[in-house]
Amino acid sequence: xxxxxxxxxxxxxxxxxxxxxxxxxxxxxxxxxxxxxxxxxxxxxxxxxxxxxxxxxxxxxxxxxxxxxxxxxxxxxxxxxxxxxxxxxxxxxxxxxxxxxxxxxxxxxxxxxxxxxxxxxxxxxxxxxxxxxxxxxxxxxxxxxxxxxxxxxxxxxxxxxxxxxxxxxxxxxxxxxxxxxxxxxxxxxxxxxxxxxxxxxxxxxxxxxxxxxxxxxxxxxxxxxxxxxxxxxxxxxxxxxxxxxxxxxxxxxxxxxxxxxxxxxxxxxxxxxxxxxxxxxxxxxxxxxxxxxxxxxxxxxxxxxxxxxxxxxxxxxxxxxxxxxxxxxxxxxxxxxxxxxxxxxxxxxxxxxxxxxxxxxxxxxxxxxxxxxxxxxxxxxxxxxxxxxxxxxxxxxxxxxxxxxxxxxxxxxxxxxxxxxxxxxxxxxxxxxxxxxxxxxxxxxxxxxxxxxxxxxxxxxxxxxxxxxxxxxxxxxxxxxxxxxx
Length: 486
Fold this sequence. Notes:
Elements: H1 8-17, H2 26-40, H3 43-63, H4 75-85, H5 102-108, E1 133-144, E2 153-161, H6 164-172, E3 175-177, E4 180-181, E5 183-191, E6 207-210, E7 213-215, E8 237-238, E9 249-257, E10 263-272, H7 275-285, E11 287-288, H8 290-303, E12 313-317, E13 330-333, E14 342-343, H9 344-353, E15 371-374, H10 375-383, E16 389-393, E17 398-401, H11 413-423, H12 438-456, H13 458-467, H14 471-475, H15 478-485
Parallel strand pairs: 11-15
Antiparallel strand pairs: 1-10, 2-9, 3-4, 5-8, 5-10, 6-7, 6-9, 12-16, 13-14, 13-15, 16-17
């Protein structure tokens, strides 16, 4: 309550006392001060808050013509306070401060903020950037969850308030789905590790309460492998629907299991993106010019003649390895060593549902900011509609590789093509003569395999499907054709 009654100058005094930033609007200063009380309140900080409150009370009494109680006055606080009132940005601490031992005072105040003066810059926990979330504001820097006792289950509260601008951003944002705004307040949790940007990681037994209601936390992905525990997808937790979209303060309580590992939590105002939006952005800024792609092909053939490359060039499939369909937006990561592409549309959709950002071709990281659209292969896809594979040649040119099924059963290729009409529901022409006997034999063979023999050998065919592989290979057998003709 004391902090909530402070003016801007009081808040700046308090934040300056602990070495925190004093810039920003009053809402931001109040939020910063409340977070200080929640997470870093030492006896010295509490004493300072009380001192500022009493000083303000004393000044009000003075302005009203009432005598000021001397026990509420602090010469040091008053002098700094009055310097702010006069518009100075630097506190004048030289007045009435001779009786204060600053090194001793600041030395007692540790709480992760360092000794002042001199100010020690402590490395901060950083979270990795997420492609599907654009950060608009940082509401709470990653702050360590500190156990308050030896219990395994801990509770850590946090209080903050939104500015009117932030409330408007949320209110005016479009809905991704009914009840879910694209601009959100999200909670992110990670290991307390300052060595590198951290991925989201939930502590055990996590529960998040916003004001008076519990927020849903993503469940577990089931594991298909025996003995392997299911994995929880650790994503930002959307708190928006449970918050007060006003100037009122919001209270968030994180319940977590204390089993030795240290975690930090941060609060962010974000805009959640869709896979369609990321695709459009990629098409705008991520297309690699065909000539650059051609130069890469030539370099690949020159530098890597042994790996997956024939004597004349390298083959690239026009079928996406993710969905086994023809590529529409050929894409790969710039860090990938291969020329093979996957489809950006399906890749982004899959990562929207389950973010892994792993290349489906080489199984190495393919993060969004490393993706490129292959301009050369895009051009080839429009020019080559009757082939599923092409070959790049040493000079950077290309040629289509026709479907090999036309020549797979070489002795009977024309007859097999003719026989396929039977499968489509057209009966063979009963010319009956078959001068050399071979045509009639093969037509009968295909007819038996595709229709009448199914009833007689149904069980046998089912076993063959399971044990001996696909039927077409068996039906193309030359010996089988002779037996059926007899």
